[in-house]
Amino acid sequence: MIDRIEPKVKTFCQLWFDGQKEPFIVKTFEYKYIWFNKWGNYKQGIYQPYLIACQIPKPFRGLVPASVSLVEKQCDTATNNLRVLYNRPLDDKKKGFAVCVKGLDFLYDDLSVRLVEWIELLGILGADKIFFYELQVHPNISKVLRYYEEQDRVHVTPLTLPGGQPNVPGFQHLFLSKKTTHKRQNELIPYNDCLYKNMYKYEFIALLDIDEVIMPKLDEDRTWHDLMARVVEKGMKLKNDTYPSYNVRNVYFFDQDQHEHEWAKDTPRYMHMLQHVQRAKNYTKPNQYVKCFHNPERVLTLHNHFPIACLGGACHSYPVSTDDAQLQHYRADCVRTLKKSCEEFKENQVRDTTIWKYKDELVQRTRRTLDTLGFFRPSVGGRGKDSLYKR
Q1: Cα separation values, 177 from 6, 107, 136, 143, 364, Å
Q2: Which residue from 337, 353, 359, 214 is spatially nearest to 279, judged by alpha carbons?
Q3: Could you give the CA distance from residue 330 to residue 109 in angstroms, rounded to a whole number?
Q4: DSSP H or E segment with residue 27
Q5: 302, containing H or E segment
Q6: pLDDT tens figures, 333-378
Q7: pTM value surpassing 0.85
Q8: I need a labelling partner for 52 at 20 to 30 A (CA). Which of 92, 266, 333, 349 fits?
Q9: What is the rounded distance in angstroms from the CA atom of residue 202 to the CA atom of residue 99?
């Protein structure tokens, strides 16, 4: 991040290659702004997200630099040095789906049980790996993440805020809750870091929050692979080419205070998503609050909801029909910008049990994980293992 807009300062990349005594120096190719002016904070002195690019010089084409430093003058002694990551599989075979999760900021909220249900559901849907970035989290959330890391199902990267922004736990949480636009700009760093670390490894990359699930609607679409095989084919008929991204419409599954809804029978009450099957009748408007499956061979920079820059020009996103899939968003309320229309969403709800096609497997997986983590109270009076407690 850079604390200025439209930076004019000339900078250079010092590219270090194995076996070379000196770096090869090239001029910075571009500063690509990962934000839109109209979204706010477009002023000097506020840290702004950029993608800074340098071209590999011709004598070294085909070689991977060991590291790179960014300097203002060609022969400056660098004060930074970044190892170059080139995570390309040796056999060039890609896995299917990666999920990237922005910096977790749950210092006081224990969402560990809901997190287990979410991770297990994404596993059933076909997520090969989930990449978390961690700011500050409750100890039980850490326990869950470490468990899945040991199974190689998730990867957790510790995260701090750049520059002079706060990193003291309580102060950082307060800063992010009050400075929403700063928070949104900071989120773009882990999102794009996740893209570039995994661009050669997966066919699709999705950016999701832990209260969101891209849900296939049709019975024949058991997994994301089934869904996207059909969706990509539909898109090819329109464009005769793949799209940089495929966006899925958002719909709210509201959390009811004190569970005013009826409890689903034969389903543990701690299964939050399985228990919440009332949703807003209407989806949010097209292109608003959507989430995408991104094609990493086509996108350059990503925002929470859409790609911002793409190879080959404009970022065309294919709208996935709500007959095929929906973004199930589990929230107590709408986002602030939908405050005026939120009551209408809440007053007009329908029952949607699409998620129940995964119920048996999801309950079994979640129960097994919670048991392994020691989150169940010892059985008393025949109540069995559905009574939760967490140390």
Answers
A1: 27, 12, 13, 24, 36
A2: 353
A3: 16
A4: strand 24-27
A5: strand 299-302
A6: 888 888 888 888 988 999 999 999 999 999 999 999 999 999 987 6
A7: yes
A8: 92
A9: 10
